[in-house]
Amino acid sequence: MTSARAATPLSPGHRGEAAAIILPMRFDNLRVSPGISPIENRLPRAQPLPKLTTELRALHEIVRASGLDQRRFGPETYWTILDPILASSPALACERVGESAEDRPLRMVSFGEGEMAVLAWSQMHGDESTATMALADICSFLGRHPEHALVRTLSRRLRLYFVPMLNPDGAARFQRHNAVGIDINRDARRLATPEGRALKAVHDRIRPAFGFNLHDQSPRFRVGDSGRMAAIALLAPAYNDQPEVSERRRAAMRVCGVVRRAIEPLVGGHVTRYDDAFNPRAFGDLMGAWGTSTILLESGGWPDDPQKQHLRMVNFVGILSALASIADGSYEQVDLALYDGLPPNGRMVSDLLLARGTLIAPGLPPTAADVLIEYDDPLTRSGPTIVEVGDLADREAHETVAASGLFVIAGEGHGAPDGSARIGPGVPADLVLAQDPAGEVVVRRIGPD
Ligand SMILES: [Zn+2]
After folding, report:
1. Which of 6, 136, 181, 316 is 20 to 30 Å apart from 90, CA to CA?
2. How many structural domains comprise the chain?
């Protein structure tokens, strides 16, 4: 609706403007739905907070690879940033381990001269870049601080292999699938993709004792039955459909416990366990069957962190803490309760609920209707789409706007060529929230950028 004029440009929650009628329920860190008891998911008190967390957090400020401030970046940007770090660090080697479907190089960084091989791979889903940033930071730390006690220990005990950005074609488009449209993490059995084959070949060559499968999950996941966002989800995946837990899987569970203990001070109460149903097509699951204790780490969402820079630091701390515990064997002493006590990834909530407003659409009578919206990218709030319209009093959203007394006015995006209205589930949102039915006094716009 082009006639809608904003009295003043308003941003959500902008002080003084319509603040009285907007009730943002954003990132409600410790809010628990009424009547639901919170899951006890704090660190057990008996567990001392690791000193390493404090040290690594401070170190991250120093070693953080610069130039990766936005989480959308392509392979060229990434390697342009990482190459000088690799070139100036004799302890780091880099080799080509394959080509993507579009012939982009797949590269692996290695470090250390120890007995035990550890493999970490990231961004097999092209739009999941948090750990890719953290791996650059870890390379920077390993390369530039050879005298650091942790770097020396890792070098002596382990051989580290990192494959950052396993899906460069997807990363170039910031999409989940590879260039052929295949989910590489569902290709572990068939190995039809060059990216999947490269990862399998690397695995078969280096035979890692431990594997880190690094992903991002939807920020819509909540912690257990609480209202908290899941910042990091961990899993020691099953590698068959049998319920028994082998020593190999138990080792991965203990390392998950190490990660939890390390990061809980940074994302307290926001750590979960990922769904552990066995998937015979997924790499994380099959790596276990191939002999590797595998740890899945999924970065979700964090308050006011649309570019995932806080979670990048959390990845840095968590992964290095895990590597330290593998290097000195201390993970073997970790209480399995740290893993078993992780609350599950709970329900997913939608992004935005316009509650109790009056919907105005071309050629239709004004209608009392709630409107539920999800964004293509919930973190940057871009690409809104209508999920549902109607009585949605029971639906939950990350942000609920109390629109009682306000008008939700459908803009041009909701007009069909014949002049009729096109509004409903699946339609991209082009809405104006206004104080009057003509849209003269705009409270907020929800539409294409
Ligand atoms: Zn993923």
Report:
1. 316
2. 2
Q: Quickly count: other Cβ atoms within 10 Å of residue 129's Cβ.
A: 27
Helix (H/G/I), strand (E/B), else coil: 159: strand
**From ligand 1's centre to the CA of 122, what distance in Å?**
9
Q: Specify whether 134 is located in the same domain as 15.
A: no
Residues 404 and 424 in one domain: yes
**177 CA distance to ligand 1 centroid (A)?**
10
Most confident of 2-11, 32-41, 230-239: 230-239
Taking only the tens place, the pLDDT of each residue in 98-124 is: 999 999 999 999 999 999 999 999 999
Maximum CA extent, the chain: 73
- Asked whether residue 7 falls in the same domain as residue 155, the answer is no
Task: Please state whether the predicted TM-score (pTM) of the whole model is above 0.85.
Answer: yes
Distance 314 CA to ligand 1 centre (A): 17
In terms of residue numbers, what domain contains 186? Answer: 51-342
The rounded Å distance from CA 298 to ligand 1 centre is 7
Residue 357 burial (CB < 10 Å; 0-12/13-18/19+)?
A: buried
**In the listed set 282, 309, 342, which residue is the last one of a domain according to the structure?**
342
Q: Is the domain of 331 the same as that of 411? A: no
What's the 183 CA to ligand 1 centre distance in angstroms? 9
Residue 300 DSSP symbol: -
Residues 92 and 215 in one domain: yes
3-class secondary structure per residue, 249-262: HHHHHHHHHHHHHH
| Separation of CA 223 and ligand 1 centre (Å) | 18
Residue 297's closest CA among 385, 207, 233?
Answer: 233
Query: Cα–Cα distance between 292 and 203 in angstroms, integer?
Result: 9
Residue 326, amino acid: I
DSSP line for 334-389 = S-THHHHTPPBEEEE-EEEEEEEEEEE-TTS--EEEEEEEEEEETTTTEEEEEEEE
How does pLDDT run across 396-426, given as a tens digit for each residue? 999 999 999 999 999 989 988 888 889 999 9
Which among 444, 343, 347, 346 has a CA at the least distance from the CA of 395?
A: 347
